[in-house]
Amino acid sequence: MDLYKKIKEKAYIVAEMSANHAGSLERAKEIIRIARESGADCIKIQTYTPDTMTINCDKPYFHISHGTWAGENLYHLYERAYTPWSWQKELKEEADRVGIDFFSTPFDRTAVDFLESIGVECYKIASFELTDIPLIQYVASKGKPVVLSTGMACLGEIEAAVQAVYSQNNKQVILLHCASAYPAITDSMNLRTMVNMRDTFQVPVGLSDHSMGSIGAVAAIALGARMIEKHFCLGREIENPDASFSMNPKEFRQMVSDIRQAEKAIGKVWYGPTEQERDSLDFRRSVFCVADIKKGERITEENIRIIRPGYGAAPRYFLEMLGQSALCDIERGTPLKMDMIGNM
User: Fold this and answer.
1) Could you tell me the sign of the dihedral formed by the alpha carbons of 217, 219, 220, 224, in that order?
2) Which tens digits make up the pLDDT trace of 311-336?
3) Cβ–Cβ under 8 Å, residues 213 and 229
4) Fewer CB within 10 Å, N side or C side of the chain?
5) What gap in Å lies between CA 228 and CA 214, rounded to an integer?
6) What b/e readout covers 312-330, taking b as 16+ CB neighbours within 10 angstroms?
């Protein structure tokens, strides 16, 4: 996957399935199809099992005490949320069939090996794994684009992760700014950080967006984001650990439309009238004759003015025209041109 080429052409929009399949392979396939129809460039999944994420233990350390998943045991949460590995080759084939890119977030080396076996062409490192340098190095060693999500990370941690990719002779890094809260609130997004990351590391940047709505994504595009990732579901009423902060198809389509319109509005550096503005040039001011002037009569502020429309000489010539003489009779309401006057 030439991801760098794709993100130069337009912002690359990723639909994150995560747990929104709610345990159904057919629903997972439908998510892929509907994501494609909703304007996503890519469907992303996550590759882990409860045992590759944590251990089955009931000690207090393994219980979530706050946020969306408060009261959950980590192991049991991942049991409900994970995407079975036995589905994933089939899901990639479905993505290939409908014409949408497919990649995944691995959480350990066994997941990387598995994803290599099914031909995944790009990897995403989750924010919570950004400090897992051995995992990042192993992913980078495969020579494929590495998307690093940076939620919670300080600048030094981001630098260490980027260097981990570079250490494997892999320069294909994309950094995603992220607020690792579910859902994230607008006040905590700090999108200027994304711009600073781009300037600091000289790599493409984007937004892994856990906020509700599309304002964060569109604002990120205006600030230079080349990739947007959003959790995607068929409907928030389908119960699963990620439903509450995921976009439904109607919302996702609107976000994609807003992003594409924002890209058009951003446009390119352009001075002078656009094609659409050319007719508006007529409404600029110019020099007009505002009283009948006889041949030989002097030009004064009583017989010429700067007014609309724009068919006469440009206003910058007004003072130069004063004191000259008419070379012909000029009727009131005639746009005054330089070749109509002179020094006699």
Assistant:
1) positive
2) 999 999 999 999 999 999 999 999 99
3) no
4) C
5) 10
6) bbeeebbeebeeeebeeeb
